[in-house]
Amino acid sequence: VQLQASGGGLVQAGGSLRLSCAASGSIVGINRMGWYRQPPGMQRALIASIISDSNPDYADSVKGRFTISRDNAKNTVYLQMNSLKPEDTAVYYCNANIRVKERWGFSVREYWGQGTQVTVSS
Questions:
Q1: Mean pLDDT over the full length of the chain
Q2: Which residues pair with 50 in a beta bridge?
Q3: Contact 49, 63 (CB under 8 A)
Q4: pLDDT per residue as tens digits for the range 33-70
Q5: Which residues share a beta bridge with 9?
Q6: Which of 109, 99, 59 is nearest to 79 (CA)?
């Protein structure tokens, strides 16, 4: 199983970006999907997560500006980022808890995407 993130880049303050993260491989089902970010010199932190098509959760720092959504048919999670600020500059990582088939049954494993850089200039 792999998570492939895309959509990062350089944008001016006030602009928008949309991140995508597609899961591929031997997937039985996907539970929680989320986005984390790691600013320079800081720890990685959760900013948005979604379990189903409803009830997403957001960190206070992005609430009202970012929107997480998922397309279950495509095993893909998105992060629409609006009104971007310089403090949103970070490497963004997608994360998912994915149910996979084992020889003895099934298990849920955590997977990470490779990270995509978002830079917001002032």
A1: 96
A2: 33
A3: no
A4: 999 999 999 999 999 999 976 789 999 999 999 999 99
A5: 118
A6: 59
